[in-house]
Write a structure and sequence with these properties.
alpha/beta; 7-stranded mixed sheet; 14 helices; 37% helix; globular; binds pyridoxal-5'-phosphate
Length: 381
């Protein structure tokens, strides 16, 4: 079955008890057992819940893998995947990563004696050089947040595999509609489903997807032991969002291209980062490992920090806010928002300067979005 069909049907058979066509919200803590040791597949909702299971089955299918786990947030999913490593293990991390993930890796996990080496993963030789005998995991995002750089998933998977390590890909920006890391050789896929998968900015969630049964068993054990699961309503909302992921992503991409082209023609903007442009340094790699270029556009204002701040505070349709991937357009200032956890020199080294503004292009009319950006840019001169 193809993506659009799986999104609507995988894990979503009519309800066995009632025939309900739409997966019900199983708002229950516990499940009555027929006899001691005889349950009907569910025991207690931290360990498993039918609504959550429907979402997990669907997400696994969308990633072309066998096992999915839903979490209470993207960060709970990141933390869940990190429960695969133990004290003394070493992780190679692509340094262009979400600030919250960096916060966990730099402030929490070193306290458990997990060690991290940060590399520019667009340079594969750096990834290979950072591997040590203790390396158990390589962690990347592609496209990266917010600079939309491309990392070669298949090549990183091969480096990890040769080292006896797992490649984890945070696939939040690409979504399973545009990229399936497991088909490219990755071992673990992580999502903040808060973003495109949920798609309506009304529910926080996360997911981990694997195809390896042993990894799935370890992750499930750790998830049950630590408890970061979503409630059934949140799982239901996320599943409802996932059903329309394909149509939304096509329109996000079409609108993003219009915005990127519009931005490129404006003298207030010094640079436009959009992997769909043929002169984007990651364009060929994106075309090879993705099925499209996504809905994010990052721009650099010619007028520096003052202009970037003015822009962020002057748009009317683009809401100034954290997050991305919803039907409504958002504008963000990575320097002080999504990437606040990084030291200033770290941000500058990655190209995230005070002039950078990130656009999550929504599903409003593209002409209206261009008009909004245009009126706000006119204030940035
Ligand atoms: C790439 C990426 N991964 C993980 C997360 C964390 O997700 P959540 O906010 O759902 O915890 C985010 C959030 O912005 C993100 O952008």
């Amino acid at each position: 079955m193809n993506f659009e069909t799986l999104a609507i049907h995988a894990g979503q058979e009519p309800d066995a008890a009632t025939g309900a066509t739409i997966v019900p919200v199983y708002q229950t803590v516990t499940f009555t057992q027929d006899a001691i040791g005889h349950d009907r597949g569910f025991v207690y909702s931290r360990s498993g819940n039918p609504t959550r299971q429907a979402l997990e089955t669907c997400l696994a299918a969308l990633e072309g893998a066998r096992f999915g786990l839903a979490y209470a947030s993207g960060m709970a999913a990141v933390a869940g995947a990190m429960q695969l490593v133990k004290a003394g293990d070493h992780v190679v991390v692509a340094d262009d990563l979400y600030g919250g993930t960096y916060r966990l890796f730099s402030k929490i996990l070193p306290g458990f004696d997990v060690r991290f080496t940060y590399v520019d993963a667009t340079r594969l030789e750096e990834v290979a050089k950072a591997i040590t005998p203790e390396t158990r995991m390589v962690w990347i995002e592609s496209p990266t947040n917010p600079m939309l750089r491309l990392v070669d998933v298949a090549a990183c998977a091969e480096i990890a595999r040769r080292a006896g390590a797992w490649l984890v890909v945070d696939n939040t920006f690409a979504t399973p509609f545009l990229q399936n890391p497991i088909a490219l050789g990755a071992h673990v896929v992580v999502h903040s489903t808060t973003k495109y998968v949920g798609g309506h900015s009304d529910v926080i969630g996360g997911a981990v997807v694997v195809d390896d049964e042993e990894l799935a068993t370890k992750l499930r054990f750790a998830q049950n032991a630590t408890g970061g699961v979503p409630g059934p309503w949140d799982a239901w909302l996320t599943l409802r969002g996932a059903k329309t992921l394909a149509v939304r992503m096509r329109q996000h991409e079409s609108n993003a291209r219009r915005i990127a082209e519009f931005a490129r023609g404006r003298r207030e903007i010094a640079a436009v980062h959009y992997p769909g442009f043929s002169d984007h340094p990651g364009h060929d790699l994106a075309a090879k490992q993705m099925r499209g270029f996504g809905g994010m556009v990052t721009i650099e204002l010619a007028g520096g920090e003052a202009a970037a701040r003015t822009l962020c505070e002057s748009t009317k349709l683009f809401s100034l806010g954290e997050s991305l991937g919803g039907v409504e357009s958002l504008i963000g200032y990575p320097w002080l928002m999504s990437h606040a956890a990084f030291a200033p020199e770290e941000k500058r080294r990655k190209g995230i300067t005070e002039a950078v503004v990130r656009l999550s292009v929504g599903l409003e009319d593209a002409g209206d979005l261009c008009d909004d950006l245009g009126q706000a840019l006119a204030k940035c001169r």
